[in-house]
Amino acid sequence: MSWEAEFTALREIISDCGLEETVKWGQPCFTLDGRNVVLIHGFREYCALLFFKGALMKDPKNILFQQTVNVQAARQIRFKALDDITRQEKTLKAYVKDAIALEKSGVKVEMKKTVEFSFPEELERKMDELPALRNAFEQLTPGRQRAYLLHFSSAKQAKTRESRIDKCAPRILDGKGLDD
Length: 180
What we know:
Blueprint: H1 4-15, E1 20-24, E2 27-32, E3 35-42, E4 47-51, E5 75-79, H2 82-87, H3 89-105, H4 121-129, H5 131-139, H6 142-153, H7 158-173
Antiparallel strand pairs: 1-2, 2-3, 3-4, 4-5
């Protein structure tokens, strides 16, 4: 679905808040001093405002959503129609201003450490068989490590986890992330 009218309405709301618009990940992203504050993005079923530090924001209207259990910092406000946006204009401006105040304060979202993520036993076994894999994995950035751990752990069956590990091992050995 095309979210042109909704994106236009969201841009108008955000444009009054003193943020600079740029494009990141192919979506309109609004920044403060080069730091991401809010992003507009569209999906099949809805479009949304994504607040990069949404986990720290006040949510008096209880409208912030965590996309998935693995998203640590960002939160979304979702819209299915233009009316959803126009009806909440004052609220949306207040949320954007709260996000700007958070960014100005310099506060950071406390992220889980890589060691706190589930480490599949199938990966541990593979690393025991192939010590170079363990070394290469440990050389990856924490974000790349987490992406692999989430990818491997999300499989329900051991056979699927093993298959994913086998497919990803060459990328890990090359020092590449899951999406590189």
